[in-house]
Amino acid sequence: MPQSLNHLAIIMDGNRRWARNNGLEVLKGHNQGAHTLQDISRVAIDQKINWLTVFAFSTENWQRPPAEVKGLLGLMTRFITTQAQDLLDKNIRLRVVGRRDRFSLELKNLITSLEKKSAPNSGLNLTVALDYGGRQDIAAAALQIAYEVERGLLSASLVDDDLLKSRLSTKVLPPVDLLIRTGGEKRISNFMLWDLSYAELVFSDKNWPDYTEVDFLLAVEEYYKRERRYGGRLDKIHHLRMIQSDLA
């Protein structure tokens, strides 16, 4: 049985398909998807999951029709405005990863304000990836390290996995244990490439607005059925777990 589920990530795919299948405008799908996120966050809290990270807007999403992009950004603004107090009341800490320079001043200020207000909260760590791309994040981290080495602020001999992680926008997040993707697609679409290295993957054919508590609990159950090897031998991993248990 794998270790406890500490960090869950979700690619919330299928909002547009759900809207079209129901004869609705695309933004209606995104709005319904926001309600689904609220429901699943509640279940994650009930399941004692400490970290929940969701992919809300990718760097590639800027290529969508301008009206849809504008509507999505407006939805983000309204969501933060209307749900801020609820997040605080539920002891949720919000973090946003990804670029912010392409957002409106209003949206940037709302994000920063809620991050600061929720910082003392000790419950669910909810991270929302906005204008985020995994490859871009790694490239930016590499560029930062190269700059530090070039300026003599850092020795090249110190560059390792931990150092690169410390320069990512996801630096405070633990490794992802389970990734859920809805909408029928079976790929990770440039999401948290570094942090997903050893994550278990569960795919659902349901579009995100149709994703239910039962679907979520079945995915969690599937996770606990799996044996996580981390590239090593099972006998060695079991031995290391016994040592860790004895030291605890």
Helices and strands in order, then pairings?
Elements: E1 7-11, H1 15-21, H2 26-46, E2 51-58, H3 66-89, E3 93-97, H4 105-118, E4 125-132, H5 134-150, H6 161-166, E5 178-181, E6 200-203, H7 213-225, H8 234-247
Parallel strand pairs: 1-2, 1-5, 2-4, 3-4, 5-6
Name the helicity range.
40-55%
Mean pLDDT: 92
- Rg to the nearest angstrom? 19 Å
Number of domain units: 1
How many strands, what sense, and barrel or not for the largest sheet?
A: 6 strands, parallel
Helix-strand category: alpha/beta
Descriptive report:
- This protein is of the alpha/beta class.
- It has a single domain (7-133, 175-247), classed as Decaprenyl diphosphate synthase-like (Undecaprenyl pyrophosphate synthetase), CATH 3.40.1180.10.
- 47% of the residues lie in helices and 14% in strands.
- The chain has helices at 15-21, 26-46, 66-89, 105-118, 134-150, 161-166, 213-225, 234-247; strands at 7-11, 51-58, 93-97, 125-132, 178-181, 200-203.
- Strands 3-4-2-1-5-6 form a 6-stranded parallel beta sheet, sandwiched between helices.
- β3, α4 (105-118) and β4 (125-132) form a beta-alpha-beta unit.
- It is globular.
- The protein starts with 6 loop residues before the first strand and ends with a helix.
